[in-house]
Amino acid sequence: MKKAVELIIFDWDGTLFDSVGQIVASLQFAAQQFEQPLTHADAKSIIGLGLPEVAQRLFPTVPELHTDILQSYSDHYVANSKGDAWFAGVSEMLQDLKMQGLQLAVATGKSRKGLDRVLAQTNSTALFSVTRAASETKSKPDPLMLSEILQHTGISADRTIMVGDTSYDLQMAENIQMPRVGVAYGVHSVEVLNQYAPLSIAQDVRELHAFLNLQVKMSEAV
Q1: Which residues, 6 or more positions from 200, have their beta carbon under 8 angstroms from its beta carbon?
Q2: Which long-range contacts (CB under 8 A, 24 or more apart) does 206-214 make?
Q3: Confidence class for position 48, pLDDT limits 50, 70, 90
Q4: Segment 175-182 long-range contacts (CB within 8 Å, at least 24 positions apart)
Q5: Considering the chain, what percentage of its residues have pLDDT values greater than 70?
Q6: Rounded to an integer, what distance in angstroms lies between the CA atom of residue 57 and that of residue 51?
Q7: What phi-psi label fits residue 181: left (phi over 0), alpha (psi between -120 and 50 degrees) or beta?
Q8: Residue 47 pairs with which residues in a beta bridge?
């Protein structure tokens, strides 16, 4: 028997929040300050990982510069990300899912400081039962942050859906056999996301909202 969906966990950047362009620009700015080559594609590819993992992946030959590069990135991002906002339709989707009695959560590669800032910016703290940031747990695709969210809510993985735009999100969910949904409007391609057997890949927020509603209704009807 299929169990009812009780919890939906969302990635933040590239899934709920339209911030990928600014993240890439800030990473490239920081790299340039320390004369480190960094292409747009490489900068985009690591979105979703925790910052220490980002530094290790992008700048493996200069570990002594990691702290300074990451600080430069963070400073540039905060100073230039005033225009970042939710994708169109996200606010309505979250409010609707919440009104249906679902618990909502966030699992992100952002730092706790960064996540708290954007939660305040979007006035959305109260929408989420729990949020986990990479700075306070293990980075994706390790499933620890998902396990911690499940422990906090008391909801099992088979009653949960993870939604994300990267392979890191979907692999993290796959690692604990959690149902998962990809979105095609973020970082990684449909071809990459399909490698992790998602229930669906939504082309936009409207399609994501409709699919999640369908999953809730189907699970309740069984």
Answers
A1: 181, 182, 211
A2: 206/89, 208/93, 208/163, 208/181, 208/183, 209/89, 209/92, 209/93, 209/96, 211/181, 212/8, 212/93, 212/97, 212/161, 212/163, 212/181, 213/96, 213/97, 213/100
A3: confident
A4: 175/141, 175/142, 175/143, 176/143, 176/146, 176/147, 178/143, 178/146, 181/208, 181/211, 181/212
A5: 97
A6: 10
A7: beta
A8: 49
Q: Which of 41-50, 122-131, 163-172 has the lowest mean pLDDT?
A: 41-50
Could you read off the pLDDT of 157-215 as tens digits, one per residue?
999 999 999 999 999 999 999 999 999 999 999 999 999 999 999 999 999 999 999 88
- To the question of pTM greater than 0.90 for the whole model, the response is yes
What's the half-sphere exposure (Cβ side, CA atoms, 13 Å) at 208?
A: 32
Q: What is the pLDDT of residue 84?
A: 80
Average model confidence (pLDDT) across the chain: 93
3-state secondary structure of 133: strand
Give buried/exposed letters for 88-126 (b at 16+ CB in 10 A, else e): eebbebbeebbeeebbbbbbbbbbeebbeebbeebebee
pLDDT attached to residue 220: 65
Third-level CATH fold of 7-18+84-221: Rossmann fold (3.40.50)
Backbone φ, ψ for residue 51 (5° rounding): -60, -40
Phi, psi of 8 (to 5 degrees): -125, 125
- Tell me which amino acid residue 18 is: D
Report whether the peptide linkage leading into residue 141 is cis, meaning its omega lies within 30 degrees of zero: yes
